[in-house]
Amino acid sequence: MVRRPRHLSTEDKVLWKKVADSTERLQPGRPRAEPSPVELIRKPPEPPRVKSPTFRVGESAKADARSHNITPNLSDSVASQPLSMDRKTFGKMKKGRLSPEGRLDLHGMTIAQAHPVLTRFILDAVAMDRRLVLVITGKGKHRDDGGPIPVRHGVLRHQVPHWLRTMPLRPHVLQITEAHLKHGGQGAYYVYLRRRR
Fold first, then answer.
1. Whose CA, among 12, 32, 88, 133, lies 20 to 30 Å from 160?
2. C-alpha torsion angle, residues 111, 114, 115, 120 (rounded to 10)
């Protein structure tokens, strides 16, 4: 297919003449000048300088008082357990007015040694119809060596409430609470046992 040359119609020629007549030359009669080498090398304009106040990283940050320990405080955890015993007796026990009928000291034991000793002690106390016993764990020594996994302060102190809430001791334990200061305070627990049926 041969392409025919395109010719402007009379209307198109009139329109083009109007557009061409309405324009003006930028520099009439002057030949186009080449840019000088100085203009080619000209530096770009510098960005405007904005005065900003001095800034220090962390200057306006608020100190976060929360610790990175995601487990609740042991005292709060034990105290938040629902009351399963008589309120009046519980109040006397918390104030140290009840005398424990048995006492177990776990000082110096490892977890492997302490768990069977605690289990035997509680089962024997149940067999002898004792109601209130004292389990002394001690507050524990701080042995964190700075490794990536934190070491708990007082391992037995954290483990004893857990052991008392699991089998085989769970059906025999009615209430666990921290002891009064005269019986060891945070380093000991009162364990109130259920009556034998």
1. 88
2. 170
* Tens of pLDDT, residue by residue, the chain (197 residues): 566 667 778 888 888 888 888 887 776 666 655 555 555 566 677 777 777 777 777 777 776 656 555 566 666 777 777 788 888 888 888 888 888 999 999 988 888 999 999 999 999 999 999 999 999 988 776 666 666 766 666 788 888 998 998 999 999 999 888 888 888 888 889 999 988 77
Q: Which residue has the tokens 């008392």?
A: 164
Question: In this structure, what is the dihedral angle of CA atoms 71, 73, 78, 83, given to the nearest 10 degrees?
Answer: -100
**pTM, full prediction:** 0.57
**The amino acid at 180:** H
